[in-house]
Amino acid sequence: MSAFIDEARIFVKAGDGGNGVVSFFRAKYIPKGGPDGGDAGRGGSVVLEVIEGMRTLMDFHYHRQFKAKRGQHGQGSNKSGANGDDIILKVPPGTVVKDDDGNVLSDLTEPGERYVVARGGLGGRGNARFATPTRRSPSFAEKGEPAEERWITLELKLLADVGLVGFPNVGKSTLISRISSAKPKIAGYPFTTLIPNLGVVGLPDGRSFIAADIPGIIEGAHAGKGLGYEFLRHVERTAVIIHILDMAALEGRDPLEDYEAINRELALYNPELAARPQVVAGNKLDILGEDEKLRQVRDYMAEREIPFFGISAAVGTGVDRLLYAVADILDKVERETVKKEKVAVTIEEHDPAEITVSRENDVWVVKGIDLERMVIMTDFENEYAVIYLQQRMKSIGVEDKLIAAGANEGDTVSIGAMVFEFYPF
User: Fold this and answer.
1) Measured at the alpha carbon of residue 91, what is the angle toward residues 86 and 92, in degrees to the nearest 5?
2) Where are the alpha helices (DSSP H) in 237-368?
3) How far apart are CA 126 and CA 379, in angstroms?
4) Which CATH class is domain 162-337?
5) Does the pTM of the predicted model rise above 0.85?
């Protein structure tokens, strides 16, 4: 059995774009052919893809860095470089992607769903692309665009319709092993279950749902006590909660006190869980039988209009009635109580061609998506490339915006990583 890993921090780097090439056509009797430098390929991206049937982030436990290949450089004879291959990272349904600031980048729930977590850089254009009637032999090309890279955190929140909660050793694993094909470890001591167990429950009437045995919830779990905090996130995805109580109280616990304690933990972890539909299962009737404690718990739940079923997960008593009741509730509620995480806004709100100028200390800071990309793809070791950049900046209004903002000759200007003194072209 593979280990269950529900959180991983990984580094992803897409491939840089390849460099465009400076080349001129050469052939016998044609000593001065035109430019024929080809464009470079774009770099590969790093893509997350949801794979049905995956249940863990184990693949990222040992392998934590993923780097896509860069695009190939352009070649002469107008030959373009090949694009770098994308890296596809397979993740289970329910994977939440966060950046290092805790912002949610994506919540991946549907099989086949994809998210580009690091985008490959654009390939640079070859010198043939810069030929004009007045610039017939351009001696420069573009560099490849640097790719995106970042550390991200993957968090798995299991996608289950029903979550089984309760104190350790109340019979959650026994119940899920009876109602599904899941085979969890079962023993007569607390914290036997150290990982969530998923099982598909099928009823004779054709209805079915996915149930998850959530282990390790005890008092103080919301604050990190015991193992509960590690797994409480999995309850958030469920539409209905089956709250299991140990009616035999073999360890001297009080079922009603346990019931209130677990509900407090759920509410303290996430207040929305307090309003989640809940069914209570009083377990271990094969040991207890019918007694005053069972009647007391049944009356307590009836007063609060909470469905209650006495069961024995070990021998199956009352389990069918419990499952049909849960299926009926699922028919009435939206299974999308399994809410997606709210994704942080990452889409640029500004036009990529928009240019802004601001003053920060003694530096004029010029920003613009297209402009900054143009700068970073310029080969500053090639004087012709620098002249072309100056001409382009003038034509798109950078110079005019600086003058309008109050910039004077000799002032320091910053565009991306480039810092220079301002002298109108």
Assistant:
1) 155
2) 255-269, 285-288, 292-303, 319-332
3) 12
4) alpha beta
5) no
- pLDDT in the model for residue 86: 97
Judge whether 175 and 214 are in contact, CB under 8 Å.
Answer: no
Cα angle 270-4-267, degrees, rounded to a multiple of 5: 10
Q: What is the C-alpha to C-alpha distance for residues 13 and 17, in angstroms, rounded to an integer?
A: 12
**162-337 matches 1-156 in CATH topology:** no
Q: What pLDDT does residue 237 have?
A: 78
List, for the chain, all residue ranges whose pLDDT scores fall below the cut of 70: 1-5, 31, 181-195, 216-231, 289-290, 334-350
**pLDDT tens for each residue of 82-119:** 999 999 999 988 899 999 998 999 999 889 999 999 99
Q: Which residue from 144, 125, 146, 142 is spatially nearest to 378, judged by alpha carbons?
A: 142
CATH no. for 356-421: 3.30.300.350
Q: Which long-range contacts (CB under 8 A, 24 or more apart) does 332-335 make?
A: 333/239, 333/240, 333/277, 334/239, 335/161, 335/239
Residue 122 · residue 55 · CB < 8 Å = no
- Helical packing angle, 383-395 and 369-376, nearest 10°: 170
Q: How far apart, in whole angstroms, are the C-alpha atoms of residue 110 and residue 91? A: 11
Give 298's contacts (C-beta < 8 A, 6+ positions apart): 282, 308, 310
Q: Backbone phi, then psi, for 269, in 5-degree steps? A: -75, -45
Class of domain 1-156: mainly beta
Q: Dump pLDDT digits (tens) for 256-307.
A: 999 999 899 888 888 888 888 999 999 999 887 667 888 999 999 999 999 9
For position 140, what pLDDT does the model report?
Answer: 97
